[in-house]
RNA sequence: GCCCGCUUAGCUCAGUAGGUAGAGCACCAUCCUUGUAAGUUGGGGGUCGUUGGUUCGAAUCCGACAGCGGGCUCCA
């Protein structure tokens, strides 16, 4: 009976064994150095996809290899369980979100277990569970208490398909990031978190995040969009109102020939009132406002403007300039008004041409170049002209002086502008954390007292796609009494953005069963910040920015010491099939369950880690999976065939080894050295696996020697090292073979192997011989040969003689242990 | 328009102080089984995107250019 690789049996056996022996549960007591390895938790959508398999495989290699290095590793898993799909399932299929979510969690948990990931399941939780969202509510009140949560009426993004408002971060290029529907504007009273209070720190402290990819940091910096400039307050002819603008080019202020305000600017109504073409202007404004954001801000959309009939006054030269309403001015950025300087801004130039506005040059190049372009704006810095007392200054000097002048005269001054806006957290949906606020006729807005938490989400509600939360119609939820005066009151019916749930979930893992607080400071401090965080780059702004914000706030108010959530971040690439991201709509999805059923978890994991470096995209390949499977079989046969021979062989190395044994040890120890640095220094798992494959090839070659002439001690050492370095990648087969070799303790409790540096050194070295930089020959010399001796050997070579004959040797370059280059003329 | 990444064998990708271009898959041959399936050993195959430069020597460092991919963008 052939002993074949039966992954079904092996994987089930060890998964059960690991679980029953609590192999991966954290021991809080021990005094080993701690390591917190975390992958982004999944939304329980129903089934795992390859992206999940990839991120969790990467995390598991890190967790397992760190454990082998002697760390006390925290490697938890939980569920990001609030969200729209659950509610949509309720509307479409009549399944309650609670039931839908929990049945998905059950299924996906089984899938994760079948993949053999080393999670400490004792720390599992779901964000939709009251024992979790109680603390999400507590944290909302914490922010409220510190003035960081507030309610205001504002023009907000509305997704008609999701039937809820969205934060700015959740609108990508004008589209809802979840469903790609064009976002609309709505004027609503909503709850916000004051993330803009932290704008400077969120930007400046990006530098602290040394273990983060530059790309992610650049995206966050871009999003925060800090811009240093000047505020200039223009007057309005015939009105007391002022018209402030923000500009980064105060040096061009003498070139302002018009003003443009956004159609949603608060002064629009006042300015156009009583104009003879008021109706026409109103129609124009209405038309622009009816457009969705993408159309309006598209590069192709024509810039349109209309004169209001009013004039602004330039505070520096008292010139009167027309005020226009323009479609290209965004109401929400800066002051919603811009000064038009057609001579020195491309957009203004095009606009001025179109509407016959004046072009007034106030900056000239410092060095006048011949054939300077006419007919377009000069946008670079230069020297001021026609700018009153500032004429003759360079742009740089003028920016400072003009800003200072404005400040002194109370007409403006330095100003910092941000693109980042406060985080809108209200959602008009059911399946989320209720906002713990009560509205009382007498007392106004009243936070729910801590002892009354959690505000439970009612289960008995009706799901209809009405565009408002089912909670609105749930009278027993809405009607309550005021915690302050006891009088009749209404509950807030909006729920929180689910990104709040995930902005602190990494803290909950450190103390998941706490019933007194979200987490004990002592426990959080023992683990935070997360040493290695792993997830998709699609969260570069949203989740990663919000989490940084939360952590800063919590650190500021003494909840935790660490002020950054994640020390290092690994942004893993996508899983592609035929060059495109796997998606149901494209029909190019590979089902992980099928792969695991057909080849086993070890093969699935090995392939996915071998096919690409973690941070790069991965092209799915059925042949590649087949190859990984064959490799595991190759390891299996190798070890199984040796087991009886080497099981009882002593481990100590004999003093004298033959040349083939020394060669095998060189391969083995050299491989372990490379694998060690690939895993721990570079997270280069694909090359580590490649080195393991070469190691196996080396073992097979040694196996060709007749058994009687093999040194089984060397073989035993080689095979044990092979299994140890394989353990983080293919944990089941490594464990099985480890035990077959006679070990009784888990391979996942072993220490990472040290390698014998001396054994990695070759005794004979092939020296490459170059003549004028071209490879002409190679010679074999003993390791550590003297430079002069090598030189002599090389020059004595017949091939070298041929090339050197009749020529002068100009120079001989010797790289010890590697090559000799003879330069001839 | 700006920023980032990539370009190496038929395919997917390594190449870590500039010094012999490499793994896996695929392909061909070999042997073993020759009842499939699997397995063993060996082999072919690359002007390292193009082009200048630095160097004794460049896939590697520097400068242009091209192609592909990603991110940001009427942000005043």
Describe the protein in words.
With 825 residues, the protein is an alpha+beta fold. It has 27 helices and 32 strands. Strands 8, 9, 10, 11, 12, 13 and 16 form a 7-stranded mixed beta sheet that branches. Strands 2-1-24-25 form a 4-stranded parallel beta sheet, covered by helices on one side. The longest helix is centred in the C-terminal third of the chain and has 25 residues, at 622-646. The mean pLDDT is 88. The protein binds one RNA strand of 76 nucleotides through helix 7, strand 9, strand 13, strand 28 and helix 20.
SSE layout and pairing:
Layout: H1 7-20, E1 34-39, H2 50-68, E2 72-74, H3 84-93, H4 97-114, H5 130-145, E3 149-159, E4 164-166, E5 171-172, E6 175-176, E7 184-193, H6 199-204, H7 214-224, E8 227-236, E9 242-247, E10 258-261, H8 268-272, H9 278-290, H10 293-297, E11 305-313, E12 320-326, E13 337-340, H11 346-355, E14 363-364, E15 383-384, H12 395-408, E16 412-417, E17 423-424, E18 426-427, E19 437-440, E20 444-447, H13 475-478, E21 479-481, E22 488-491, E23 495-496, H14 498-501, H15 505-508, H16 521-527, E24 530-536, H17 542-556, E25 566-572, E26 575-577, E27 580-581, H18 592-599, H19 601-610, E28 618-619, H20 622-646, H21 659-680, H22 685-703, H23 712-726, H24 731-740, H25 757-760, E29 764-771, E30 774-782, H26 787-796, H27 798-804, E31 809-815, E32 819-824
Parallel strand pairs: 1-2, 1-24, 10-12, 24-25, 26-28, 29-32
Antiparallel strand pairs: 3-4, 3-7, 5-6, 7-17, 8-9, 8-11, 8-16, 10-13, 11-12, 14-15, 18-23, 19-20, 19-22, 21-22, 26-27, 29-30, 31-32
Helix pairs in contact: 1-24, 2-19, 3-4, 18-19, 19-20, 20-22, 20-23, 21-22, 21-23, 22-23, 23-24
The chain binds one RNA strand of 76 nucleotides through helix 7, strand 9, strand 13, strand 28 and helix 20.
């Amino acid at each position: 009976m052939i002993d074949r690789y039966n992954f079904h049996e092996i994987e089930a056996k060890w998964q059960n064994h690991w679980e029953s022996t609590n192999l991966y549960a954290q021991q809080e007591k021990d005094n080993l150095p701690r390591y917190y390895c975390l992958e982004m938790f999944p939304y329980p959508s129903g089934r795992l996809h390859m992206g999940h398999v990839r991120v969790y495989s990467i995390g598991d290699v890190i967790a397992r290899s760190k454990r082998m290095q002697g760390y006390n590793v925290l490697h938890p898993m939980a569920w990001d369980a609030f969200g729209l799909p659950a509610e949509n399932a309720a509307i479409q299929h009549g399944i309650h979100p609670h039931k839908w979510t929990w049945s998905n969690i059950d299924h996906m948990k089984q899938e994760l277990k079948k993949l053999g990931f080393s999670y400490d399941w004792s720390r599992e939780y779901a964000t939709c569970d009251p024992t979790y969202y109680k603390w999400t509510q507590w944290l909302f009140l914490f922010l409220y208490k510190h003035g960081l949560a507030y309610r205001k009426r504002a023009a907000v993004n509305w997704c008609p398909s999701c039937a809820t408002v969205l934060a700015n971060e959740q609108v990508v290029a004008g589209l809802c990031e979840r469903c790609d529907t064009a976002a609309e504007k709505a004027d609503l009273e909503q709850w916000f978190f004051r993330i803009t209070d932290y704008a400077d720190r969120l930007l400046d402290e990006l530098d602290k995040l040394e273990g983060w990819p530059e790309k992610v940091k650049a995206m966050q910096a871009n999003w925060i969009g800090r811009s240093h400039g000047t505020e200039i307050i223009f007057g309005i002819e015939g009105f007391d109102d002022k018209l402030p603008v923000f500009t980064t080019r105060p040096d061009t202020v003498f070139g302002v020939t018009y003003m443009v305000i956004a159609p949603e600017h608060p002064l629009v109504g006042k300015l156009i009132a009583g104009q003879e073409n008021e109706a026409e202007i109103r129609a124009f404004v209405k038309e622009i406002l009816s457009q969705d954001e993408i159309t309006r801000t598209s590069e192709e959309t024509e810039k349109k403007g209309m004169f209001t009939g009013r004039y602004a006054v330039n505070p520096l030269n008292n010139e009167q300039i027309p005020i226009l309403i323009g479609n290209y001015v965004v109401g929400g950025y800066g002051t919603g008004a811009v000064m038009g300087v057609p001579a020195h801004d491309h957009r203004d130039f095009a606009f001025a041409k179109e509407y016959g506005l004046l072009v007034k040059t106030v900056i000239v190049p410092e060095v006048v170049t011949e054939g300077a372009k006419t007919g377009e704006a000069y946008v670079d810095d230069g020297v001021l002209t026609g700018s009153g007392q500032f004429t003759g200054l360079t742009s740089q000097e003028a920016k400072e002086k003009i800003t200072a002048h404005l400040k002194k005269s109370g007409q403006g001054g330095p100003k910092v502008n941000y693109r980042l806006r406060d985080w809108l957290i209200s959602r008009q949906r059911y399946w989320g954390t209720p906002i713990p606020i009560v509205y009382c006729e007498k007392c106004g807005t009243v936070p729910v007292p801590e002892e009354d938490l959690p505000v439970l989400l009612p289960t008995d509600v009706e799901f209809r796609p009405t565009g408002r939360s089912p909670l609105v119609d749930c009278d027993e939820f809405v009607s309550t009494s005021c915690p302050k005066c006891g009088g009749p009151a209404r509950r807030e019916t909006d729920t929180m953005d689910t990104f709040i749930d995930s902005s602190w979930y990494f803290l909950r893992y450190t103390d998941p069963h706490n019933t007194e607080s979200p987490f004990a400071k002592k426990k959080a401090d023992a683990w935070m910040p997360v040493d290695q965080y792993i997830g998709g780059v699609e969260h570069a702004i949203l989740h990663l920015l919000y989490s940084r914000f939360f952590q800063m706030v919590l650190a500021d108010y003494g909840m935790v010491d660490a002020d950054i959530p994640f020390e290092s971040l690994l942004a893993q690439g996508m899983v592609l099939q035929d060059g495109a991201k796997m998606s149901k709509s494209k029909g190019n999805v590979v089902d992980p369950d099928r792969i695991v059923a057909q080849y086993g978890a070890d093969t699935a994991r090995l392939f996915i880690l071998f096919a690409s470096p973690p941070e790069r995209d991965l092209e799915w390949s059925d042949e590649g999976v087949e190859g990984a499977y064959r490799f595991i079989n190759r390891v299996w046969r190798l070890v199984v065939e040796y087991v009886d021979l080497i099981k009882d062989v002593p481990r100590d190395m004999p003093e004298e080894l033959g040349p083939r044994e020394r060669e095998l040890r060189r391969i083995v120890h050299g491989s372990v050295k490379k694998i060690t640095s690939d895993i721990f220094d570079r997270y280069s798992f694909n090359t580590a696996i490649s080195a393991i494959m070469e190691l196996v090839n080396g073992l097979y070659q040694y196996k060709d020697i007749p058994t009687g002439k093999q040194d089984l001690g060397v073989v035993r050492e080689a095979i044990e090292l092979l299994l140890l370095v394989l353990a983080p990648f293919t944990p089941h087969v490594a464990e099985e073979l480890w035990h077959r070799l006679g070990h009784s303790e888990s391979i996942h409790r072993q220490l990472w192997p040290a390698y014998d540096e001396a054994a990695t050194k070759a005794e004979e070295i092939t020296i490459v011989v170059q003549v004028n930089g071209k490879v002409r020959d190679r010679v074999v010399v003993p390791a550590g040969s003297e430079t002069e001796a090598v030189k002599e050997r090389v020059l004595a070579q017949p091939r070298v003689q041929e090339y050197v004959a009749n020529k002068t040797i100009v120079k001989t370059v010797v790289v010890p242990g590697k090559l000799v280059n003879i330069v001839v003329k």
